[in-house]
Specification:
Layout (H helix, E strand, L loop, with lengths): L8 H20 E2 L3 H16 L16 H20 L10 E2 L7
Antiparallel strand pairs: 1-2
């Protein structure tokens, strides 16, 4: 039937895996600045609300990663609070990666 969308299973798996890997990298990368933290949270909200979808549909892509994102946010905020307690402490460059197990 013309106009019917029939996904290619191989492409669906390939691009689905790439999307999943990118989402996991974003979820497990702890922002090193408050602006970076805000950007991640705004992006996740935008994806969830459909802001970045051509059709405007909501996307639950980050639902499973929300706990990880919250852990990242906690790490960023804790680092900034600790830095503000220490005189002369500067902000670090780069990013921190979550390496502990998230199960349990």
């Amino acid at each position: 039937m013309p106009g019917t969308f029939s996904p290619d299973p191989e492409k669906e798996e390939l691009y689905g895996n790439r999307e999943s890997d990118a989402r996991w990298d974003l979820a497990t990368t702890v922002p090193t600045t408050l602006a970076g933290l805000l950007a991640v949270l705004k992006y996740v909200e935008g994806v969830s609300d459909g802001k970045f979808s051509p059709s405007g549909r909501r996307d639950n892509a980050f639902d499973e990663d929300l706990k990880t994102i919250l852990i990242s946010a906690q790490g960023c905020l804790a680092a900034h609070l600790n830095a503000s307690k220490q005189s002369g402490a500067g902000q670090g460059a780069g990013v921190m990666k979550i390496t502990r197990s998230l199960s349990g």
